[in-house]
Amino acid sequence: MSPHILLRNRDIASLNRIEIYKKYGGFTAVEKAVTKLTPAEVLNEVKESGLRGRGGAGFPTGVKWGFLPNSIWPHYVVANADESEPGTFKDREIMESNPFQFLEGLMIASYAVQASTAYIYLRGEFWQLAAELDRCIRDMEKAGLLGDKIYGRDFSLRIYTHLGAGAYICGEETALLESLEGRIGQPRLRPPFPAVAGLYGKPTLINNVETIANLPPIIEKGATWYRTIGTEKSPGVKIFSLSGCICKPGNYELPLGTSFRELIFTHGGGTPSGKTVKAIMPAGASSSLILADENALDTPMDYESVPALGAQLGSASMIILDEDTSIADVVAKTSHFFKHESCGKCTPCREGTYWMSHLAQRIAGGEATSNDIDLLYSVASQIENKCLCPLGEFSIMPVISGLKHFRKDFEDRIK
Amino acid sequence: MNPSLSPSSPEVQTILSKYPPEHTRSAIMPLLFLAQRENGYVTKDQITQIASLVRVTPTEVASVVGFYTLFHDEPGGWYRIQVCTDLPCLMKGADMFLEQLCANIGIKVGETTPDGMVTIEEVKCLAGCHRAPMFQVQSPEGITYHENQSVKSALGVIEKLKENKPGEEKA
User: Fold this and answer.
1) In angstroms, what separates the C-alpha of A331 from chain B's closest C-alpha?
2) A309 and B CB contact within 8 Å
3) Chain A nearest CA to B169, separation (Å)
4) Which of A49, A163, A228, B20 is the most exposed place for a label (fewest CB within 10 A)?
5) How many structural domains does chain B have?
6) Are residues B55 and B89 in the same domain?
7) Residue A110 contacts B where some CB pair is shorter than 8 Å
8) For the segment A157-170, what is each residue's pLDDT rounded down to a tens digit?
9) Is B33 close to A165, i.e. CB distance below 8 A?
10) Residue B16 contacts A where some CB pair is shorter than 8 Å
């Protein structure tokens, strides 16, 4: 197996210590960027690499960077470390075990968009992790890697952690900004996009932790090297968080385009029950359910192939469901999650998730009539395309796909 | 006045220094965490103090307390045992784990033990799906994760927490 690019902590012990990180080539990429490349050249290298946002949307990272106007200042960089999608635990491992690669990436991103302040927005539950990152930031300050005139050049940067306090919606970038500004986490109307009017109304680059951790290897080894990994349209590696009915749950760093079968059986060891995989949720609770037939299992996990199965790769939080699992229970669970996490701003989401949860619980609890199944579908359909942010949209994915592929599971619970 | 929220307190100063002076409002959430270090919940007085520190109305601070699940405006147990029962944890028996944990401690979800030490809560995904069943403990001292748990190991964790509780018993 080739060495890890992101989870290098799996190959090198104590990589969360600055001297060990330096010993293994740490900070050479940011030094190269700051001393040998212009911000525009850094941006171009990232664009050429084909890196796409790892938080879920898969938007080309370099293109996103290019949206920040050079006519409005200051620029801000915000790392999205809110990681709250059920089934996702990859950013946590990066920050816990390879924090300096993430922080070095944050320096590179800040240099590229010429920001002198970067915030790391962590979900509030990552309390201990924030304290560890604060320690890492202090180590970097002592080493002269943060502060003024970094590498003797006209580049200043300060990095601060900021804890959320338990709200899934704050992973959505405009809700995150509201929260960082000290408000309740409700999404903003777009446009303007954060790249133009973000934190404090200023141009702001928001990238996911895993996206940022990709930057040092890209700058160090180049876009051409990066493109030798993964597929043409989805280059690079991805961390797949594997959970649910699986023998070996955990994070697996694999090239994009690896098949579901390889992840689930070669790496994950199949289901503990030894039974057939019934369904896969590739993007956590926000995911459409994929019917795990032979064709699906042989499908490459990348940003183009997964949509062909009617789902999204998203943050690649793979929840595996075996044939003993009733999809009626799954949908009751996910609907309850979204009901709890809806911020309440848009009526279709606020009311719709409430009723979906109510109906799904009633069906799962064996208290429903067959009319309730149709009503559940009807409520879900009425949320579609009617909300400001994707939460409402996400909430209906398991419902619609569950009813489409596994309607019998719901009918079996009817009185 | 609670000394930890005084404008001259070093901790308040450190928090405020993270944000541009014209955007001190960003300090509301970190200040609320600081306030909760006192007793594990935020009082009306503290809300007023924070509002005055960042120059907004107390209502605006209170709305933040109400929105986020890690802020509490009522006393609970010194240790809040927050068990995740979301889908991946459910697949690993988190529902049963929570039920048996409650039965062993003798309280229901949302209730607090008579000694005021422990509240059990059911929470949403904590990014520990691969190490289910799992829970976090929120207390005035902060938040700690406890993963790959059994009912027996969880009861052990709770016993240890009770023994190590700093300061005097709560009234």
Assistant:
1) 9
2) no
3) 25
4) A228
5) 2
6) no
7) no
8) 999 999 999 999 99
9) yes
10) no
pLDDT digits (tens, 9 = 90+) for A204-220: 999 999 999 999 999 99
| Domains of chain A: residue spans and CATH | 8-226 (3.40.50.11540), 238-322 (3.10.20.600), 327-411 (1.20.1440.230)
For residue B93, what are the domain limits? 79-164
Note whether residue B171 is domain-resident: no
Residues 6+ apart with CB under 8 A from A56: A85, A208, A283, A286, A312, A314, A315
CB within 8 Å of chain B, chain A residues 232-271: 241-245, 249-251
* Residues of B in Cβ contact (< 8 Å) with A83: 127
Q: What is the average per-residue pLDDT within B64-73?
A: 97
Here the CATH number for the domain that contains residue B95 is 3.40.30.10
pLDDT at residue B169, rounded to an integer? 52
Q: What is the DSSP string of B36-96?
A: HHHHSS--HHHHHHHHHHHTS-HHHHHHHHHH-TT--SS---SEEEEEE-SHHHHTTTHHH
Helices (H) and strands (E) in chain A, counts: 18, 9
Are A319 and B63 an interchain contact pair (Cβ–Cβ within 8 Å)? no
- pLDDT of amino acid A250: 97
Residue B18 lies in a domain: yes
Cβ separation B143–A125 shorter than 8 A:
yes
pTM above 0.90, yes or no: yes
The answer on B97 and B53 residing in a single domain is no
Tokens for B22? Answer: 């014209």
Of the residues B43, B67, B91, the one at which a domain ends: B67
Can you tell me the ipTM of this complex?
A: 0.95
